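EI: anyone free to look at a 317-residue chain?
SC: sure, send it
EI:
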Amino acid sequence: MWLQPGPSNGHAPRWGHADGLQVGIEPGLGPRGLLRMFAPYLGSDRLLNFVAVEPIPLDATARGFSELEPSALDGAPGKRLWSSSGVADDVPRPTTDPEPGVVTVEGGVERLTVHVQCERFENGAEVAVRVQFRADRPREVSLAAFRRPGSVGLSACVLTATMGNYARLRRLHLRDRVATPGELWPGFVGLAFTEHARFGLEHLRRDGAAALVWATPDEADPWSAVYAPGTAAHWRYEGARAVQGWRVEGPSAAVAVQVNARWAYWASTSPIPGGPAFENVELVDSYRDGEEFVFWCEPLDGDADLDAVVARHGATT
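SC: here you go
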């Protein structure tokens, strides 16, 4: 049932459901400093999305960037990530020897848990991210940040899905509306990111105390898009059309969803087929050690009932 590093898979640093959502770290495709999200049940083992770790110290607005900051350990781009058995286990572990994770039973539900450590950020933040899967929720993963001893205080630790352009997510589903890049940033072109658009708790769908948000493509068959000449092969979408979402079980009044968009694929001049699409999709809350942000993904057939699909990812309590 569980996918864990071991001899059978060459000790690849990848965890999750054997037939469901999976999370990996480097080595692997893409930049360092990012959690890698895989959803092979969509019909492709290609990387679906990245999640970056971006802590914000108290009395500050600027984020640390796990993907973009150089490593103080080896000077390479991107903070080094490694797996561990707990928050305090902060000694860098060789990528050839990943932590297998711990299987426990809580409330009658089996869970697989591993911690991903990130080296110290330039702003003084030191955090570990607990990655936890539930046996009864095979297409979601809980991510929770914890401050390590020695870290500065934090106002937030943003866990942001950073690659919405791959699936060309263009419809952000809020409680009272569906927001699109064309509406939020009309006429936007160029190679930069848009500014963030922010929607507070009053705009989020609720399920009991939990708050939810999700995003979908606006194309019925995203795999059939026509790409501009020179577009890198890794941007060409594969697999079933899907909805991607976030849930926070116990949000504070300060929680908000933030999104930005791009007109061209990251690190390229290749325009995104169909125009700007959301790139970063994130729930942000005032920092609380161990607050869970649940990322989920489901296939979305053309005639599927989206509300029924989303209902599978409501509150667990």
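EI: The mean pLDDT is 95.
SC: 👍
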